[in-house]
């Protein structure tokens, strides 16, 4: 059986909701996707995150998935889009931080502007605190390890005695919950 035929069979089973087909497709294509992703972006953590996120999205949307003629090409294209979206988002964040730093150093704010900015920061903090209360203690712990201590998923899994996949899924669910709460 050829690689593409096998992936097509897994795709069809995935569309029907067979979780094992998702894992089989993931295992079949992971190394290919990783190599492909690293040609687009040299950040291996970002590439690994995007691959995992891609498969989580496939599972979450499996009832709406359409038949695909070339599953491998579809996954490459989806990964490429995901990586580009993440790189654009990172660039926007970097640019915003840079602009904010330049504004802070480049000009003095008026008293009113300082008060307004302080109020906006306080409102944002309160919204974030409220959103964090919707998370489980485990989700809060993993968010802290990933985003405040800067640990990789492998380090988080090792530190919390979980699998990498469980750590990723927990953080993914927490982020999804935070986005929903902050909208």
From TrEMBL:
<dbReference type="InterPro" id="IPR013249">
    <property type="entry name" value="RNA_pol_sigma70_r4_t2"/>
</dbReference>
<dbReference type="GO" id="GO:0016987">
    <property type="term" value="F:sigma factor activity"/>
</dbReference>
<keyword id="KW-0804">Transcription</keyword>
<dbReference type="Pfam" id="PF08281">
    <property type="entry name" value="Sigma70_r4_2"/>
</dbReference>
<keyword id="KW-0805">Transcription regulation</keyword>
<protein>
    <submittedName>
        <fullName>RNA polymerase sigma-70 factor, ECF subfamily</fullName>
    </submittedName>
</protein>
<dbReference type="InterPro" id="IPR039425">
    <property type="entry name" value="RNA_pol_sigma-70-like"/>
</dbReference>
<dbReference type="InterPro" id="IPR036388">
    <property type="entry name" value="WH-like_DNA-bd_sf"/>
</dbReference>
<comment type="similarity">
    <text>Belongs to the sigma-70 factor family. ECF subfamily.</text>
</comment>
<dbReference type="InterPro" id="IPR013324">
    <property type="entry name" value="RNA_pol_sigma_r3/r4-like"/>
</dbReference>
<dbReference type="GO" id="GO:0006352">
    <property type="term" value="P:DNA-templated transcription initiation"/>
</dbReference>
<keyword id="KW-0731">Sigma factor</keyword>
<dbReference type="GO" id="GO:0003677">
    <property type="term" value="F:DNA binding"/>
</dbReference>
<feature type="domain" description="RNA polymerase sigma factor 70 region 4 type 2">
    <location>
        <begin position="126"/>
        <end position="178"/>
    </location>
</feature>
<dbReference type="InterPro" id="IPR013325">
    <property type="entry name" value="RNA_pol_sigma_r2"/>
</dbReference>
<dbReference type="InterPro" id="IPR014284">
    <property type="entry name" value="RNA_pol_sigma-70_dom"/>
</dbReference>
């Amino acid at each position: 059986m050829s690689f593409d035929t096998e992936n097509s069979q897994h795709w069809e089973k995935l569309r029907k909701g067979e979780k094992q087909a998702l894992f089989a497709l993931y295992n079949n294509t992971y190394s290919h996707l990783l190599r492909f992703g690293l040609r687009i972006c040299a950040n291996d953590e970002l590439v690994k995150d995007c691959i995992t996120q891609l498969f989580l999205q496939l599972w979450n949307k499996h009832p709406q998935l359409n038949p695909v003629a070339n599953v491998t090409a579809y996954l490459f294209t989806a990964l490429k889009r995901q990586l580009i979206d993440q790189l654009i988002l990172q660039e926007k964040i970097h640019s915003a931080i840079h602009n904010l730093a330049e504004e802070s150093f480049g000009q003095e704010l008026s008293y009113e502007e300082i008060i307004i900015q302080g109020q906006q920061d306080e409102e944002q903090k309160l919204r974030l605190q409220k959103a964090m209360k919707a998370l489980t203690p485990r989700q809060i712990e993993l968010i802290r390890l990933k985003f405040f201590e800067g640990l990789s998923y492998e380090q988080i899994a090792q530190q919390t005695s979980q699998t990498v996949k469980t750590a990723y899924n927990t953080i993914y669910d927490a982020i999804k919950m935070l986005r929903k709460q902050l909208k």
